[in-house]
Amino acid sequence: MFTSSKAYSATTLNSAIGNSVWLIVSLILAIVGGILVYFLFLSKKNEGKFTGFLGWMYDFLSFKKMFLEALLKITYLIFAIYVTLSSFAIIGVNFLGFLITLVVGNLVVRIAYEFSLILLVICRNTSEIARNTKKIDDNK
To answer: What is the spatial distance between Cα 12 and Cα 6, in angstroms, rounded to a whole number?
Structure first.
């Protein structure tokens, strides 16, 4: 039994070493790949050059399109439905608790998501102002 424990710990040690090596290799490849993609694919000279999937990928990687708004709306709906449905678990125990959870819970979820969307709208508006200012400066 002692030898099988030794064999098990050796296998575990080898696995941990292999995982550590792979994590280091992954980090190096990610750094090199990120730098290459940034300078070769996402350079300003390539703007508007790609169509189809590569055009979508260029816009996605250069953050031209924001996907966070759709994601926030979907997660808001999920949480609002969850709070509404889970509040019904309280209805048999405490009707007032049910009403409070139903109303206040949905209100808290809504306010939290509105704050998130406000930040997103501020970001979008600031980007648009910067873009319009650049157009005005270019026309002078």
So the answer is: 10
